Amino acid sequence: MIILKELDELLFTIKKQFDYDFRDYSKASMLRRINRFMSINNMKNVVELKFELINNPTIFQNFINEIVVNVSEFFRDPSFFKSLQENIFPYLESYPKINIWSAGCSFGEETYSLNILLKENSLDSKSRIYATDISNNAIEKSRKGIYDNTNFKEYTKNYYECGGKESLKNYFVSDERHSMIQSDLKQNILFSNHNLVADGVFKECQLILCRNVLIYFNNNLQNKALELFYESLPIHGFLAIGKKESLRFSSVYENFKEIDREQKIYQKIK
Amino acid sequence: MRPEVIIIGGSAGAFDAILSILNHLDKSINIPIVIVLHRLKNTASSFETILQRNTHYVVKEIEDKEKMEKGFLYTAPADYHVLLEEENTFSLDVSELVNFSRPSIDVTFESFSTLLKEKCCGILLSGSNQDGANGLKIMAENNGKTIIQDCNEADFDIMPKAAKNIYTKHKELNTTNIINTLNNEYH
Question: How many Å apart are CA B103 and CA B92, to the nearest integer?
């Protein structure tokens, strides 16, 4: 077990040794994740954890993969995807080329969900999605696009609730246990490693999707990330954050207009 | 020491008990209340509206990094775990289900009591799974005040029973006595 008092020092060590800065992450979530990692790996205290991290490079990579939350699903919050199609896609249609940033893409569920809907609205061929995550493991899994069949009943339900027009299974190649996303749905997506804490603007994007990522940051870091999104958007570009996340505490709040208050979709207006 | 927060957890069969507690709570009581109730995701719910009709508190579904204030009754949003930060702000989390649940009562009980120690009062009501039992035990071990609904009264006794089975010293009270206890101690 690690306790709150020991957390700051551990995060400082990680920053110094590995140049990963988690010091502005939400402490409550961080503690849970680290304790989970320690219990999975049978580590009793913070001294043991530090020793393993410093002396065993593969352990450190596992640590990063484990403490970053990569839990997602296809079409999480169907009402959000419905709103995206109804309120944002018509705007996107007017652009000759569309750049989209899927920030914190986890294992790709959110990114592929978006791409399926782009395809159904004939926007896929002129869209380029930049999907990024801090975890290399997440990027690798996203690229593969292979998912366990267990949850597909729920995904299908989500998909229809958000206005899906086909059979969700048509977008996958499946065997008894797994389903792999069709390769044509991968062609317009570029998966790459990006750290919202340390890296800067890399592309102007008309739409940025970053849902349920900011919750793992403290106010300071949320603000920093939101400024980065602000700089990456052209005027009239769109930002979507998680349903229970907020722009309210951020310095760029005034620069956005609410497009859908409930679904937390915003448009940059100045 | 008087608690700084009351956290109520429940699942199947807990809603009526919650309404009854809120209805009879002394109007002078204003310490923050957090309710973690298992609920369906992706369905519009009138949960908050109904709560608001039955309490003098201001009812508010939790938003990330919102500060916990007196006079407010907070509800855990569907599909998020609720944690507490040092500055008494809420953090939300969409990590793995715990006890098949998100929000999980265990997660919130543990997070709050680890930080606030004896300043927590946890109440575990009716429910048909074991979520909350571990968290309530941790809360008791941190010297928080812990109450389970009378297993004979609870519509579904699996939840309070699970808590009793792993820790015998929780107070087991029926709804009327839960109300009396809160009114005597926190007015």
Answer: 9
- Of B121, B124, B109, B142, nearest to B31 (Cα)? B121
Instruction: Inspect the interface and report whether the beta carbons of B94 and A215 lie closer than 8 Å.
Output: yes
Residue in A29, A34, A40 to test binding to B, most B beta-carbons within 10 Å: A29
Are A244 and B85 a contacting pair at CB < 8 A? no
The pLDDT, as a whole number, for residue B3 is 75
Of the candidates B18, B124, B14, B17, the one whose C-alpha atom is nearest the C-alpha of residue B74 is: B18
CB pairs under 8 A between A and B: 75
pTM value is 0.93
As a whole number of angstroms, the distance between CA A76 and CA A150 comes to 16
Record: contact B93-A243, CB cut-off 8 A: no
User: Any chain B CB within 8 A of the CB of A264?
Assistant: no
CATH match for A78-268 among 3.40.50.150, 2.130.10.10, 3.60.140.10, 1.20.140.10: 3.40.50.150
Instruction: Decide if B170 is catalytic.
Output: no
Closest CA to B10 of B32, B39, B52: B39
Count of CB atoms situated within 10 Å of the CB of B9:
31
* pLDDT tens digit sequence for A20-72: 999 999 999 999 999 999 999 999 999 999 999 999 989 998 999 889 888 88
| A124-158 pLDDT, tens digit each | 999 999 999 999 999 999 999 999 999 999 999 99
Helix %, strand %, coil % of chain A (to 5) = 50, 15, 35
Q: Compute the distance between CA of residue A29 and CA of residue A9 in angstroms, rounded to an integer.
A: 16
**Helical H segments across B7-153, by residue range:** 15-24, 47-53, 105-116, 133-141
Give the Cβ contact number of residue B108 at 10 Å: 24
Q: Which CATH class is domain B5-186?
A: alpha beta
Can you count the helices (H) and strands (E) in chain A?
Answer: 10, 10
Q: Does B151 touch chain A (CB under 8 A)?
A: no
Distance CA B59, CA B48 (A): 6
Q: Is A244 on the interface with B (CB under 8 A)?
A: yes
Q: Which of B106, B131, B150, B157 is catalytic?
A: B131
Closest Cα of chain A to B152: distance in Å?
Answer: 34
> In B79-103, which positions are buried (b, 16+ CB within 10 angstroms) versus exposed (e)?
bbbbbbbeeebbbbbbbeebbebbb
Tell me if A78 and B91 make a contact (CB, 8 A cut-off).
no
Cα–Cα distance for residue pair A177/A149, rounded to 1 Å: 5
| Cβ contact, residue pair A69, B85, below 8 Å | no
